[in-house]
Amino acid sequence: MIEAADSRARGAQLTLEQNRAELRAVFAATNPGVGRGFPRSATFRWLTSHLNARSVASAALAALMARPMWAWQLLGGWLRRNA
Question: Would you kindly state where each structural domain of the chain is located, as residue ranges?
Answer without folding.
Answer: 1-51, 53-83
